[in-house]
Amino acid sequence: MRLSSFMVLSALAGAPMSARAATDPVEAIRLHDQDLQSLLKRYQPSIPAQRDTLKHMINEIFSFPELGKRSLGKTWATLKKSDQDTFLVVFRKAVESSSMKRLENYRADSTKYAASVGEGDRTAVTATVYRNGKSSKVVYKLFQQKGSWQAWDLILDDVSTLHTYKDQFATIIAKEGFAGVLSRLRTKSAGD
Fold first, then answer.
1. Number of separate domains in the chain
2. At what angle do helices 81-100 and 161-189 cross, to 10 degrees?
3. Is residue 112 a contact partner of residue 94, using CB atoms and an 8 Å limit?
């Protein structure tokens, strides 16, 4: 089963307080997924508070500064601090908007987790997600910051979220410059 890269982001992105407190990265991801599935079961789009909670949960565990910096590659270092900050705000909003438009992609019937691979404050957690009799492999690339595990990449069925953004941004920057990236991200987030 092919899940969108935004499912990956959402799966990464929503660690509730219990998951953030987990010292084991597998437990952090498992707790996050459990809380996300619970919220999705009772989610009613007509209730704004539920929408805000879901959006926050989907995106909380993800490190937008790390993903953003890596996605822009060498361009990141050429930007003024104010441009970096603007990019991160616009990038996060675009990802959040996209994730909320694809809620069905976040639903799972069950998930199995393998032991984490890595040491210290860098690791990867692999999950096999089952939905409607099909499975997908999701690899969460994590680092520990301020006592919580945060994702800087999500690989879904061998497709890296980071590499997807990096390739897209490099193409846009080559043709339209950094301003083109901001413009396209703002368009993506419009209407949320």
1. 1
2. 90
3. no
What CATH number is given to the structural domain containing 123?
Answer: 3.10.450.710
**Cα(17)–Cα(24) distance, integer angstroms:** 14
Tally the residues of the chain: 192
- Which among 53, 51, 12 has a CA at the least distance from the CA of 33? 12
Distance CA 130, CA 76 (A): 37
Biggest alpha carbon–alpha carbon distance for the chain: 48
| Single-letter code of the amino acid located at 66 | E
Residue 149 has pLDDT above 80, yes or no: yes
Residue 44: how many CB atoms within 10 A of its CB?
A: 8
Q: Which domain holds residue 54?
A: 5-189
pLDDT digit string (tens) for 150-161? 999 989 899 998
Token readout for 40 is 């999705």
